[in-house]
């Protein structure tokens, strides 16, 4: 199985006044293609810090994190931005949609950065909106959508370039139970059909119930790593990956 992320003896320290706080303390992990995994733990356990380093939004203090064969700590800011632009997708708890843009324009934005031509962009955006069930909202703006719909737009935006790795930081934090399950089923469907690796940072039991691998962090250390068989997976429609 292809390795997507390798975390080796990772330490992350943050300067506080004249001292420092150690958020991650010698973390070792490997994520392979197609995993649906979560970093689980209470606030302050280090899960978001680890997710940010994997996403090249931060760098290790010690040790190494290799993402898609690239060592995060050795990337220039330009190289890190290029990796994020081409290969990584991000889903945040606050959606981070552009309020003056339509649903179509929000989802299209990553493809503009990739200089994809207009005809191909439209086809890809509409296909992706169909995956998440939002084709009828294509001309709506975020203010006209529910929280669940906004998060589905965020998923579509993350998936439209068909990234190899998607990082989701508390993606259901602002959603009710019904919307949370819909969002998680959508992400699980995309994971299964596109073989995209998903890594969550969460303490939400609803999310944890869907994970195929649960990595528990406490005080900056991995204290548990469990894989499980997924039961009662939702019925899904085959997604075209051509």
Low-confidence stretches: 231-242
The appropriate CATH architecture is 3-Layer(aba) Sandwich
Distance between the termini: 21 Å
User: What is the overall shape?
Assistant: globular
Q: What proportion of the residues is helical, as a percent range? A: 25-40%
Tell me the name of the CATH class: Alpha Beta
What Rg, in angstroms, do the CA atoms define?
Answer: 18 Å
SSE run: EEEHEEHEHHHEHEHEE
Major sheet characteristics: 6 strands, mixed
Can you walk me through this structure?
This protein is α/β, with parallel strands linked by helices and 242 residues long. The protein has one domain: 3-Layer(aba) Sandwich (Rossmann fold). It has seven helices and ten strands. It has helices at 47-54, 77-87, 103-113, 118-131, 147-159, 177-194, 205-210; strands spanning 3-16, 19-32, 36-40, 62-67, 70-71, 88-92, 165-169, 197-202, 213-218, 221-227. The strands form two sheets. It has a six-stranded mixed sheet with strand order 6-7-8-3-9-10. A hairpin with a 2-residue loop joins β1 and β2. It is globular, with a radius of gyration of 18 Å.
């Amino acid at each position: 199985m292809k390795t997507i992320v390798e975390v080796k003896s990772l330490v992350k320290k943050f300067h506080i006044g004249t001292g420092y706080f150690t958020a991650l303390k010698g973390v070792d992990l490997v994520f392979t293609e197609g995993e649906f995994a979560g970093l689980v733990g209470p606030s302050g356990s280090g899960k978001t810090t680890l997710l940010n380093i994997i996403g090249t939004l931060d760098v290790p203090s010690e040790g190494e994190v290799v993402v898609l064969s690239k060592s995060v700590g050795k990337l220039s800011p330009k190289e890190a931005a290029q990796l994020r632009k081409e290969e990584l997708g991000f889903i945040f708890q606050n959606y981070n949609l552009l309020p003056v843009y339509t649903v179509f324009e929000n989802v299209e934005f990553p493809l503009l950065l990739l200089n994809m031509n207009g005809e191909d962009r439209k086809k890809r955006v509409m296909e992706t909106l169909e995956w998440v069930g939002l084709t009828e909202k294509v001309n709506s703006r975020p203010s006209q959508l529910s929280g669940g719909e906004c998060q589905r737009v965020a998923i579509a935006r993350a998936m439209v370039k068909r990234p190899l790795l998607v990082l989701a930081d508390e993606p259901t934090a602002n959603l009710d139970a019904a919307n949370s399950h819909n969002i998680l089923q959508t992400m699980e469907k995309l994971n299964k059909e596109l073989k995209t690796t998903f890594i969550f940072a969460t303490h939400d039991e609803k999310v944890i119930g869907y994970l195929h691998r649960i990595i528990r962090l406490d005080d900056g250390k991995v204290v548990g790593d469990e894989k499980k068989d997924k039961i009662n997976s939702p019925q899904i429609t085959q997604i075209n990956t051509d």
